[in-house]
Amino acid sequence: MPESAVLEGLEEKIGYRFKKRELLRRAMTHSSYSGGKNHGSNERLEFLGDSVLQVTVSQYLFTNMKSVPEGGLTKLRASIVCENSLYSFAKKIELGKYILLGKSEEVTGGRDRRSILADAFEAMLAAVYLDGGLNAAMKVIMKFVPPIDALKSGKVKLGDYKTILQEIIQKNPEEKISYEVEETPANKQNKKLFFANVQLNGQTIGSGSGFSKKEAEQEAAKEAILLMGYDIG
Question: Rounded to two decimals, what is the model's pTM?
């Protein structure tokens, strides 16, 4: 299938038609595909997309949750824009199949890697912003952000497991959690795997792994929450 037709399929999923489709192509270009050259990849767009996302979600929460104090808004925003939530948004539109990857990433499961999908999602938002302005980007973002009623009810379960675990532990002020992370040497594809343990008062209560320190810690926190008997969906 021609590349233009593939990208058109992504346009249909996000509900936005690009005037400059090369922006979308850049957003879908991983650094492994561009030969490690950052200027040819989506990394700069990812940086911009993060800011566009932060502004949009901040305005949405500020406008619609007037009774929630600053601290509550900050926590809620963090849970919406965290890597795990962006990964789930990306999965909803099967973003992985549109990403341009190098062979090394392709063979090691890059199309379903949490960090790659989350970064590509942010880069895509930046591409929309550059092509159509802030209002266009906001319309795309709001297709993924949960409705205010759902957020207020607490029925939405978002993916920042470290924050969730911290809030559980804080119910007992004398308890303290910490994370220990180890990394393996780079493999033939120059990828490192990180292993994390989350500890409660020095005792391991959950473990996880990932291709970044953040991902490993999130997986460890998720396991700890499940082992403590909490339903996180």
Answer: 0.68
